[in-house]
Specification:
643 residues, mainly alpha, 66% helix, disordered C terminus
Length: 643
């Protein structure tokens, strides 16, 4: 209910700003309005939403909302628009996302939109009563708002801290982060989740914008260029026009810069591109200036000049822009004294870690010493850690691998550290005759632990081949690591090479691990607690082997003819928490597909049951749409139909 029994606006609609919201996005307090005025606003907002879904007229909807002249209650419009769309088809969901992006900054300001999404997450439990899949739908809306730069990524953590741990709103935030924003190519996936804009796709829009700008620079017809920009009918995406125009101005300079500035000035004065979109376009270029510098070395200086000219002409508010990031120091410019000091501290960190096993202490100290995440410092730490471990016993080598996987360093920093190890391998071999074997296992283990990708290992070998001899220790280690990773069941052997199981403790045999997983799932299926089951899976310390959890759960579901919702719910919870990664989920389904013929001996319709599970997993977002159960040399398996 939105209103009290006596017609008084409920207290939660007038609450003070939440303390957990960031200052820039602080939730504004609602001004005092009579209950009649507020109820009238709600009725009109509901009518506007319904009319928009009927007419699909963004401009008319924006004007109607603006004419209500109550911007302090725009958060309710955001909540109403999304909650109505959630109960409709994908067309309306996409329309709602497009409308929010169009209204943002021009009609609905940032704090109001932020507050609207806060209200949505708080009321998700109520929304789920009428919309069973409300959690997933709202998670997509949240992810879409972040991809469209309407909500800051920090919204997930800030709002999560304001919600009770077990509520559906908290689950929405977890799913938005784990299932949508953490996957590769998440921007394209989120934008196309409901079929994409029916007007034009993102890639088509970018191509058309580039064509318009190129034709304008060739012909010089500003009126035609502005007409073409209007005809795109994507006002929420005009920031891309600004960004691409600025890139051309910086890259070509001279007369081209003047023409571009004249176009943007006239677009601003005629209202073709609003102030919010212009600011957003400049901010996007500021964010990517380091990449532009690679092609145009003086891009920073040129962009400062463009900002100054635009500001002096009055169509850009320079104070509203982000600050240009400082020029990064080159590796050669890092102070030698600072490097030597960091090396000494890195050695002490490693020694203390081997004594205490306290990973969090190492992480906090490393962050304190390398607060700017300098790649060269991270690379030095990786080298010192591995070198110290290679001089010690298997226990320390296992601990070093566990620490590497826990640091969450950028993969390129770890690769840089491995290059340092390769460069020094010949000298290290004088003190450690087993250097090749040790490096082989560290390289292979980093791939198994997903610290670096297999392609990183290939790139390392390619880079090293240009400066290292064929038979050098570093080259041998790289080749051996790639060969080891290509062997069957390599991950399990690599994880046990130093007696560990990925947790720094004595490892288990493979059969013992499988038995533990089987018993864990059996106990949960008999009435166990979901949270406890997730904790037990995590405590196994075998993230690389979570595909076995998926496989065993699927086999049980198939054997019970798809009637085991508890195990499916456990998989959903594990995936939502990030406990089972998309890679491990896909691998688990792959393994079941590989053995479906054997499974069919006990369950004749196993193929159909698996097909049902695959389709359901695709709908849940666990599997990519391209996933197939077909195997070479086997007849195609018919997809099941979920009842």
């Amino acid at each position: 209910m939105e209103c009290g029994r006596d017609g008084v606006v409920p207290q939660h609609e007038h609450q003070a700003p939440l303390k957990c919201a960031a200052e820039d996005y602080a939730i504004p307090p609602s001004p005092t309005l009579s209950s009649e005025e507020f109820l009238e606003f709600k009725r009109k907002a509901t009518t506007i939403v319904e009319e928009y879904f009927s007419t699909d007229d963004v401009a008319a909807t924006a004007n109607e909302l603006r004419d209500l002249r109550v911007p302090c209650y725009h958060y309710y419009f955001v909540k109403k628009l999304v909650s109505v769309a959630m109960d409709r088809h994908d067309r309306e969901k996409e329309m709602a996302a497009v409308l929010l992006s169009s209204l943002y900054g021009d009609v609905v300001d940032r704090p109001q939109l932020y507050k609207g999404f806060c209200k949505l997450t708080e009321s998700c439990d109520d929304l789920s009563v009428d919309t069973p899949d409300a959690v997933d739908i709202l998670a997509v809306f949240v992810a879409r708002a972040i991809v469209d730069d309407m909500l800051p990524p920090a919204f997930l953590a800030r709002q999560g801290a304001c919600l009770p741990g077990g509520c559906k709103g908290a689950e929405v935030l977890r799913r938005a982060e784990k299932s949508y924003l953490s996957v590769p190519h998440h921007g394209e996936i989120v934008l196309q989740r409901w079929g994409g804009s029916k007007r034009i796709t993102v890639e088509e829009a970018k191509a058309k914008i580039s064509d318009i700008l190129e034709e304008y620079l060739a012909a010089g017809d500003r009126a035609e260029a502005l007409r073409c920009i209007r005809d795109l009918k994507i006002p929420f995406f005009h920031h891309d026009v600004v960004k691409r125009a600025l890139v051309l101005a910086v890259e070509r300079g001279g007369a081209a810069e003047g023409h571009i500035l004249d176009l943007l000035k006239e677009a601003s004065e005629e209202g073709v591109i609003n102030e919010s979109q212009i600011t957003k376009g400049f901010d996007r270029l500021i964010d990517s200036i380091d990449d532009l510098v690679l092609d145009v070395p003086n891009a920073r200086c040129l962009l400062r000049s463009v900002i100054h000219k635009a500001s002096s002409e009055g169509w850009l508010c320079a104070s509203c822009l982000k600050l240009l990031p400082p020029e990064p120091k080159k590796a050669s410019e890092v102070d030698d004294a600072a490097v030597q000091e960091f090396k000494a501290k890195a050695v002490s960190f490693v020694k203390e870690y081997f004594l205490t096993g306290d990973i969090m202490e190492v992480v906090s100290r490393l962050e304190a010493e390398n607060y700017s995440c300098c790649p060269s410092f991270n690379a030095i730490f990786v080298k010192k850690l591995v070198n110290a471990a290679m001089d010690r016993k298997s226990r320390e080598k296992e601990m070093a691998s566990v620490l590497l996987s826990s640091l969450c360093m950028p993969p390129e920093h770890v690769v840089a550290g491995f290059h340092l190890l390769i460069d020094a391998a010949e000298d290290a071999a004088l003190d450690n005759p087993a250097i090749v074997e040790d490096l082989t296992m560290f390289f292979a283990r980093s791939v198994v632990d997903e610290v670096i990708a297999p392609s990183d290992l290939e790139a390392m070998e390619e880079d090293a081949s240009g400066v290292k001899a064929e038979g050098s220790a570093g080259m041998l280690a790289l080749r051996n690591a790639r060969a080891l990773l290509g062997a069957k069941l390599s991950a399990e052997r690599i994880l046990r090479c130093w007696g560990g199981g990925g947790s720094g403790k004595a490892g288990w045999e493979l059969d013992e691990v499988k038995d533990k997983i089987g018993r864990l799932l059996q106990e949960y299926d008999c009435g166990g607690d979901t949270r406890e089951a997730c904790r037990c899976i995590k405590d196994l310390g075998l993230p690389f082997f979570h595909h076995e959890v998926v496989k065993k759960a699927l086999v049980t579901i198939i054997e019970k003819r798809g009637k085991d919702e508890r195990l499916w719910g456990l998989l959903s919870e594990c995936y939502g928490r990030g406990l089972i990664t998309p890679n491990q989920m896909t691998k688990g389904f792959d393994r079941v597909a590989d053995c479906v013929d054997d499974l069919a001996l006990d369950v004749p319709d196993a193929g159909k049951q698996l097909g049902c599970c695959v389709e359901r997993a695709k709908k849940e977002g666990w599997l990519d749409a391209s996933f197939s159960m077909a195997r070479p040399g086997q007849p195609p398996v018919a997809n099941g139909v979920c009842s």
